[in-house]
Amino acid sequence: MNFKTLHNGIKMPAVAFGTINTTKEAVKAAIKAGYRNIDTAEIYGNEEMVGQAIREAIDEYGIKREELFISTKLWKDFKSHDFALSHYEASKKRLGLDYIDLYLIHWPANATKNPSDWQKINLDTWSGLEELYTSGAVKAIGVSNYLSHHIESLVAGAKIKPMVNQIEYHPGFAQTESADLCKKNGIAVEAWSPFGTGEVLKNETLLKIAESHGKTSAQIALRWLLQKDIIPVAKSSNEKRISENLAIFNFELTEDEMSKIDSLPYIGGMGFDPDTESSKWGMRF
Q1: pLDDT at residue 13 above 90?
Q2: 173: which strand partners?
């Protein structure tokens, strides 16, 4: 496993395992396969299960808690300094862990619903995460689904810059403006839904590149992210694919292959806009 060093010096494993709509067996299989970065969230409703899988994996596979990097997120309906503190404690209790490595604000305040005070709401919530970090309760803090204007506003008013921004990012939906601004500010970028809810894996361009490397289209999508210095949050319930998704450090995409993937049109995924709380498909969250 490779690592990404966050701007506070903490090392974060360069590939994460996503746990939305998954099982305890899949989480344990991921840890057994070598994943050390496990991502969950309050809204997934599975923190208890993820915590149990972690504890069982530690006992069964001889892994130390310190080897694992566990992330969870504060849901968008709970936005204030005090909510951040209380919901962190609730997540930690559900996970059954002494500490959480990375705590994220799941979504920014909706600028459409809060046109005059979305910036204040984000900063107030962020101040709770800053308190958790300075008190030593959590090793790193960050945000999720923050676009460039959210990042600019937060960085301008925060005492501590986010260490991570987790955004939807995959072939056909590369949120480069947000990612580039994060990198400029030393904020690591994580990619959720790196397979675009599965549609990316069927794309002919990725399939052809995969064939030339003797890899799967999933491995190509993940490698593309790694070469962009983005941490993918990969998910699967299949043990074979769980292992395959880690086998991405022994090959490299050419500049031409990277360019071909960069130029792909929108081919799937959620395409959520945090300022309207809707997706390209009209779905709401």
Answers
A1: yes
A2: 170
Distances (CA, A) of 271 to 38, 121, 259: 23, 24, 21
34-43 burial, b at 16+ Cβ within 10 Å, e below that, comes to ebbbbbbbbb
Q: Which residues contact 241 (CB under 8 A, 6 or more apart)?
A: 216, 218
Q: What mean pLDDT is predicted for residues 97-115?
A: 93
**Catalytic status, residue 44:** yes
As a whole number of angstroms, the distance between CA 24 and CA 204 comes to: 33
Q: How far apart are CA 50 and CA 42, in angstroms?
A: 11
> Which residue among the candidates 44, 103, 133, 146 is catalytic per the annotation?
44
Closest to 223 (Cα-Cα) out of 212, 210, 235: 210
Distance CA 104, CA 71 (A): 8
pTM of the complete model: 0.96
For 104, the 3-state DSSP assignment is: strand
* DSSP letter, residue 42: G
By the 8 A CB rule, do 96 and 158 touch? Answer: no
